[in-house]
Design a protein that fits this description.
Number of strands: 13
Number of helices: 16
Structural class: alpha/beta
Helix content: 25-40%
Radius of gyration: 22 Å
Distance between the termini: 41 Å
Oligomer: single chain
């Protein structure tokens, strides 16, 4: 395993006591590699991009530990880090150099492309096939998969793609520069060089580009991050239910900038016109995405309380009540409909719309919805098939130790069917990576979305632990 560092960001749900603290380093461009035991070579490569709103997270999270996936699926698993928040995506005219990449503002995206280049040049030493690389990611990682699909700079560096609960999001360069101007004004206000944004504009009138560049580069990450409101789990920017449904973060960083080099055009336009890197594509979302966020959106719990409660639960001896998480009983009848509405937002923006666009230009598109919601009662009602719940099934990591915030979900009663669903999902994911299609012997048939009247597979368990397909 190659050494891993985390990018600067506010820590997500790994350590409840450190939620909201700034950790990591901008010197974060390290990666992890797992391979199966033995001497086999020319193995498919699974290249994982972590989520976290592009402002939190790290590949070192135990949730992404790749040993089980590598061993069970006979793949080389790589997980990467990339710069986060305004260290990963930031643009301001005062930093212009004339170099299209330096001026793109898309430093986090360029980190991913550089990691792909490293894997192409070095993965054979670990038994991987540089001509068979699958990029995959969840949430912001899935959003970044779409960015790489659309970026001409990533062409040829990967051969399949998987997006889990992501969406094609890109930001006009001019909008990014407005955010850059806003951040500069906030820094001037904090340094008492200005009293307001209008005052900051006046202050800057007689400052040249060199002064602005030196001032911005003099700021520490802590000073930069202090200018942003904190969203859920330390992400940047407050989030409202309405904006969440439509995948827009109020005050957040948005997607990759349309800069003319890393991105030539809006990602959705690239998908619609067919001007993207066409590879076999597996994409989906979860039935109740919003259940990770609803207790916070409705102001019932803080992130630390939610984290701590989840870690204290014994899944084989449940003593909690719904009211421990959802304080107002008036919300009980509408809680699940609200969660499914949020899930439909993910499905529409991140799955259905892009899949329909891409299906006009290519075959080998495979769409899923993850429906598993068999946590011990009443946790099935509270969390269900929430955002990120598919990850342990993909990686085969069902940790029950105190450091795992998903330990509440893994009971002895649901273990047999859960392990079977995980086996099926790992087989689907690795078959796509190996052959360009998820189907294989002994697996429920997964129809090609572009050839099957927009059919998708529903990943769930029952008595047989089998998956089912349907619209």
């Amino acid at each position: 395993m190659v050494k891993t560092h985390s990018g600067f960001g506010v820590i997500a749900i790994m350590d409840c006591d450190k939620l909201g603290e700034l950790i990591g380093s901008e010197d974060c461009l390290y990666l992890n590699i797992w391979r199966p035991r033995g001497e086999a070579g020319k193995l498919p490569v699974f290249f994982w991009i972590h989520g976290g709103g592009n402002s939190v997270g790290q590949s070192a999270m135990s949730l992404y530990h790749g040993a089980n996936l590598a061993g069970n699926s006979q793949m080389v698993v790589v997980s990467i880090n990339y710069r986060l928040g305004p260290l990963g995506w930031f643009t301001h005219p005062g930093l212009s150099t004339g170099d299209p990449l330096d001026d793109s503002g898309n430093y986090g995206t360029l980190d991913m492309i550089q990691a792909l280049k490293w894997v192409r040049d070095n993965i054979e030493a670990f038994g991987g096939d540089p001509n068979n690389i699958t990029i995959a990611g969840e949430s912001a990682g899935g959003m970044n998969v779409y960015s790489l699909l659309a970026s001409p700079l990533a062409a040829g560096y990967f051969h399949k793609a998987i997006s889990e609960s992501g969406a094609p999001m890109s930001t006009p360069k001019a909008q990014g520069e407005e955010k850059g101007q806003w951040l500069l004004a906030q820094l001037l206000i904090k340094d008492r060089l200005a009293k307001s944004e209008d005052d900051a504009r006046t202050f800057l009138q007689d400052k040249n580009q060199k002064w602005i560049a030196e001032y911005l580069r003099s700021k520490t990450p802590a000073e930069i991050y202090s200018c942003y409101d904190k969203g859920f789990f330390g992400t940047l920017g407050k989030m409202q239910i309405s904006s969440f449904i439509f995948r827009k973060k109020s005050g957040g960083l948005g997607g990759t900038f349309i800069d003319g080099a890393v991105l030539k055009e809006d990602i959705k336009e690239s998908l619609d016109q067919g001007s993207y890197n066409k590879v076999p594509f597996l994409v989906g979302s979860n039935k109740e995405e919003g259940k990770l966020f609803l207790p916070l959106m409705l102001s019932f719990l803080t992130e630390r309380e939610l984290c701590q409660k989840a870690k204290e639960v014994d899944p084989d001896n449940i003593t909690i009540k719904v009211s421990d998480y959802i304080k107002n009983p008036l919300y009980y009848p509408i809680y699940e409909p609200m969660a499914r509405l949020l899930g439909k937002g993910f499905e529409m923006m991140g799955v259905d719309n892009p899949a329909k666009m891409m299906a006009r230009h290519q075959q080998n598109i495979y769409v899923y919805r993850f429906d598993w919601d068999e946590e011990p009662k009443p946790l099935d009602f509270i969390f269900g098939a929430m955002h990120g719940m598919e990850l342990p099934f993909v990686f085969g990591n069902f940790q029950k130790d105190q450091d795992s915030v998903l330990r509440y979900a893994w009971s002895k009663d649901n273990e047999p069917a859960r392990l079977e669903l995980s086996r099926i999902m790992m087989a689907y994911w690795s078959n796509l990576a190996r052959n360009g299609a998820p189907n294989g012997p002994g697996l429920p048939e997964w129809p090609d979305y572009s050839r099957s009247n927009k059919q998708r597979i529903h990943l769930d368990t029952g008595i047989t632990g089998r998956a089912k397909s349907g619209k």
